[in-house]
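ARCHIVE CARD
Drawer: 12
Card no.: 0347
Subject: one protein chain, sequence and derived structure
Cross-reference: see card 0346
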Amino acid sequence: MSETNSRQALDPKAARMGTAPLLPLIFKMSLPSMFSMLIQALYNIVDSIFVAKVGETALSAVSLVYPIQMLCISVGVGTAIGVASLVSRKLGAQRQDIAQEVASHGIFLALCSGLVFLIFGLFFADDFVNAFSDNEALIQPAASYCTITSSFAVFSFVSILCERLMQGSGDTVTPMFTSLSGCITNIILDPIMIFGYFGVPAMGVKGAAIATVIGQVVSMTVNLIVVNKKQFAVKATIKGLKVSGPIVRQIYEVGFPAMVMQAITSVLNIFMNAILIGFSETAVAVLGVYFKVQSFVFLPVFGMNQGLMPIIAFNYGAKNRDRMMKAMKIGMIIAFLFMSLCTVLFQAIPAQIMSLFDAQGELMTIGCRALKTISFNFPFAAIGILIGTIFQSTGHGFYSMITSILRQLVLILPLAKLFSALWGLEGVWWSYPISEVLSLVFVLIVFKRLWNKELQYIGQEQK
């Protein structure tokens, strides 16, 4: 297809990202993305709520494996972000033929990622769990959960990619419903497989893992059918694919930093577990609960990120600086207000939140203190995440990666170690908001540098 023809083939849904009124467009793009991200969070939190009814050891087992689940999500979402960002930029530049090539590479990369996690799940899951505990009552269910969820991660990878392809094409409503199919399946199967109903044997933690995988299979199947049957700008297929090194490189210029940014949470969780287990297994369970609950705080903001990204990327490709920056400012205000509200809720009802996980005694006491202290970081994180959207959407994902590494490794881990020595367990929780404030200062400095160097000049050559 010639460049002229490809420019005439721009999809109308994609074109509206450069012309529609911004506030309604941002809500239309972001709200379904938020919903989709919340559905992803439900996979983990539903497992924990039901598993907690088995016992605190079972909850600790799932919490111990949570970093690996986050790593799976990081790889899937990071690759999908890189694909969606490049697809949106090519659509903005009216190169739909190249956008389709990018989408095909995304499916190929999702399959390759699934193979890596299959190998980990089959051969290294036991070693991972054994590195943290010698308690057999904890090791056995944790290893089983890790093996199952890791080995079949490919279903999640393909599903996430399909959702991002639809979003990158300008449709964020359809993925909301396709992802819901898997979540509903998981919610229905969890109690059946954990506790044993309708003739199914009670499998405990292992049953939770199986229910999660089946839900992901359903979601992937529905996503593949929809994205390839409906009229989207691109299709999810590898038919006739010839792998292109330059396209893979461009995908991971944004995708790899995004992957690292989310994977840092997994790495942070691993090292935090190592610090907390020195206090008690209950402290590990509390951190697991926090990460499950905070998904309902952060993932809507990341959903806003995903909704804004195609808008910003499209207008960056179209060299419309004013519209691009206005979209970011609107998104930042919404995210800041939402996160501030969540801080208020965590301060007001921590006991009610912990009670979702059958918390009592020490689990309730430690959990309430942790939720109240860590939640002070929410408003600062909102600003940093939304500035990161600009970095990712304009092909500068490396900046997002650096700022995330600073916040979640370079700052928080040394602070957690230092504060735990000075003030005990309470000091670990305070390391979260303090590191968030310090990292936000750095993010603002980096953004100012990018603005002075490049962003302020976008579109001037057209004048």
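Annotation on reverse: The first helix runs from residue 3 to 8. The chain has 18 helices and no strands.
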